[in-house]
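S2.1 Query sequence (P1 family peptidase)
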Amino acid sequence: MPRPGPRNLITDVPGLLVGNATDERVISGVTTVLCPGGWRASVDVRGGGPGVRETETLQPVNSFAVAHAVVLSGGSVFGLGAADGVAAALSEAGEGIEIRPGLRRAPIVPSAILFDLGNDGDKAWGLDPPYRAMGQASVGAAAADFDLGSVGAGRGAMAGTHKGGLGSASIDLGEGLIVGALVAVNPVGSVYMADGQTFWAWPYEIDGEFGGVRPGEMAPAVEPFPDHSRLAAFGRLSPGANTTIAVVAVTADLTTAECKRIATMAQDGLARAIRPVHTPVDGDSVFAVASGQVSLGAEAERRLKIAMLGAAAADVLARAIARGVFEARTPS
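Output structure tokens follow.
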């Protein structure tokens, strides 16, 4: 029976490091996934209001479809500046693509942002948004162990009308194949069933990692958007005002096109954990990165294992979403 890795975090994929930077005055933050040496990567974008950087770089037809880091940030469009700080810090440390000997290295740092400008934080930053500095700080904080909940990119997040957060989970499939997920949860849709307590992702939970609540007798899920009146009151129905942004990681030797397939399949995890999802007012984006440590073998075996990895990525991402909200509402 597959089990979570020892941390139940994306960093159970060996080599990955994650750093959070949080600004309590702004009530926002940045979370960075470091992929030392550059990992094969791609991305799938499904929401109608995405905010992204360097996603086209990760398409299979392009030359530099690797990621030296992936940045998830609050701050809406201002949060895209976090990747500038990460790129500068990595380049200074000698990380990135060597275009020509003697030139400064160029790290590939794709990123996605969520909207948290409507909370009570101080957003009067004038011409100096704090996200570049938080990006640099997140690199300095990167480690195998990191906090979940109201930290980093999840600090100012909302999940429907509830507090959102930063979540992570992992699964060990055996034979060296490990899948991990990291997510900042800020959707317009709800992560809860009609009882307001049971996560939609409950069938995928392992060892009570997000509370162990199971559905009892309750209303059937026939209303497609049950919280829309309350969401309007919260001002959350504007285009671009919500999103769920995530990274999934695997140990396999994937090509860019195969990373794209894993990211596409992993989007099903959002559909299992959030209702509704991929709306016109969300910017749902999922990155996939691969360390290349484990060979998937010949063609027929390879296709089967990619299908298995994609299915696991969807399950792990669903768990990470519920865990992020659970950890945000039950701080240690």
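The chain has a mean pLDDT of 93. The first strand starts at residue 17 and ends at 23.
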